[in-house]
Amino acid sequence: MSSDSYAIAMKETLLYLEGIRTEDYNKIPKSLIKYLEENSDQNYVCDFDPHTPLTELNLHEETYGLLAMLYYKYWCKSDSERKYYLSLLAKNEEIYDEQYKHNNYSNIFSNNNHKEETLTPNLLPTKIERNPFKRFLQKIISFFKK
Fold this sequence. Notes:
Blueprint: H1 3-17, H2 22-25, H3 30-39, H4 61-75, H5 79-102, H6 132-145
């Protein structure tokens, strides 16, 4: 990940933060907001409405990571909520690792056995989300909607 991608993520994070509740925004230290502002890509144009739900946005992966960090650090209300959050992260990481192993195409040509395989309907690939953290963030957003 390049510093450019982080600068873009900071810009998207700042724009997204404009759409959250004031009480949640105020939980974030001003020094962190200032850091994000100073290090964000000023030339990057975000083309989304900050009031759009997070689940409907197509943000960079680094942006989701920054938002996840903000949720854990500043918006979790109790230690039990933090533990639950960490367990969700661990579970999502396991799912991601399993999907990566299943879809690892780096060894696709190492098998010299050229048998034709037919797929049965139950073995067809299933839809895999672009980012397992997106599902996790959808869960976080559901907490805010309560």
